[in-house]
């Protein structure tokens, strides 16, 4: 009984420790995404200023191939890595379209 309580206390301590590290990683992800969006915003402005299209499928294909390889090397599911990139890129393109529209009006 006493042993069970010790085990559980230990498990709860370990859980809090792991969650602390997860919180740090989540914070890094948010910071990295914010930096990425600052850069893509500049790309969107550059494209709009020079009449370039918001999306670039050949660039995206190269990014997907590269990320899938990196994911495999890091033992991350490449399908997940691809979906994650697609989710971000879709939002970037939406923003580029908005920038282009605002230049037109
Ligand atoms: C940022 C760009 O615009 C779009 C968004 C991309 C991205 O978020 O990485 C990649 C290609 C484009 O479809 C770009 O052309 O580099």
Automatic annotation (TrEMBL):
One of its GO terms (molecular function) is chorismate mutase activity. This is Chorismate mutase. Its EC number is 5.4.99.5. InterPro entries: Chorismate_II_sf, Chorismate_mutase-related, CM_bact, CM_dom_sf, CM_II_prokaryot. The lineage of its organism: Bacteria, Bacillati, Actinomycetota, Actinomycetes, Micrococcales. NCBIfam families: CM_mono_cladeE (TIGR01795), PRK09239.1 (NF006691). Residues 9-100 form the Chorismate mutase domain. It comes from the Bacteria. It comes from Brevibacterium spongiae. Keywords: Isomerase.
